[in-house]
Amino acid sequence: xxxxxxxxxxxxxxxxxxxxxxxxxxxxxxxxxxxxxxxxxxxxxxxxxxxxxxxxxxxxxxxxxxxxxxxxxxxxxxxxxxxxxxxxxxxxxxxxxxxxxxxxxxxxxxxxxxxxxxxxxxxxxxxxxxxxxxxxxxxxxxxxxxxxxxxxxxxxxxxxxxxxxxxxxxxxxxxxxxxxxxxxxxxxxxxxxxxxxxxxxxxxxxxxxxxxxxxxxxxxxxxxxxxxxxxxxxxxxxxxxxxxxxxxxxxxxxxxxxxxxxxxxxxxxxxxxxxxxxxxxxxxxxxxxxxxxxx
Length: 295
Description:
Blueprint: E1 12-15, E2 18-21, H1 32-36, E3 39-41, E4 44-47, E5 50-51, H2 54-67, H3 76-89, E6 95-103, E7 117-124, H4 132-135, E8 139-143, H5 165-176, E9 181-185, E10 191-194, E11 198-203, E12 206-210, H6 219-230, E13 235-238, E14 250-255, E15 259-266, E16 269-270, H7 275-288
Parallel strand pairs: 8-9, 8-15, 12-13
Antiparallel strand pairs: 1-2, 1-7, 3-6, 4-5, 4-6, 6-7, 9-10, 11-12, 11-14, 14-15, 15-16
Helix pairs in contact: 2-3
C-alpha cells in the first residue's frame, strides 16, 4: 500500500486564526518546538459530524501548554470552533482531528520566553488504529524497553510531544517483532499504559486499571469508566504489578485512536477477549455515534 505523505495533500489547515492550503502549512527549520520539544497537542475524532468530547480535549490542550510554561493566544471556545471549521472546510464528517501548539522560531536556545506561540489544526480521514478483523480477536503486545518517567523528572500531566519519543521507539520495536504495540511500565515497575492508549484488565467481573499518577488520565479512559459504571461494572484504579497479569482473564486498551480494542497477549501473558471487553467495545462505538447503549 502506497502512503500519501502528510505534507503533500489537498485540503486546508487552520493556522494561527486562518485557513491556509494544506501544502503551505509550514514552519521554519529553526522552530523552537522542533529543537526543544516545546509543543503540546491533542488527538480527537469526529463521528458523524460531531467531535467526541471536543471541549475536554481543548481544555487539556490549554492545560498542557500552561504546564510547559506558555499561553495559547486563543480562547477554548475559539479553538473548539476552529476544530469544527477545519472539518467542514475539508468536507469531512468522520475523521481524526489534530490541534497542536508550539513555540516558534523567534528565539533559538533553551530559554525562549520571547518566542511566538503558534497553533494549528489539521484533520484527515483515519480508519481504525488496528485492523477491524483483528480488533475483536484481540491484538498482541510486547513489553516496552523504556518506562514512563516519574512526575518529578518530566511534565507527565501534559500531552507534550517530547513524552512520545519513547513511545515511537517502543512501537517501532514492537512492530519489528510482529506485535501490534508495546505495554510500558512506569519508573517504579508498575504497569502503566500502551504507547498511545490506556489499559484495563478484568478479573471476576471487576475492571482493574493503573492509577494515572505518571501518565495521562485519558479522556477515552474516563469515558469508558463511566460507560462501565452505567452497565453495573465496578472499576478499581490501583498500581498493578506485571506478574499480576497472570490473574486477569480479559484485557483491553482504550484511546482516541485505539477506541476500545481487546488484547489477547502482553508479553508472556495471554487473555481471551470476553463479554466485558467485547460489550464495551460495541457500546463505546454506539456512544461516540450517539446511538443507544445496551444495558
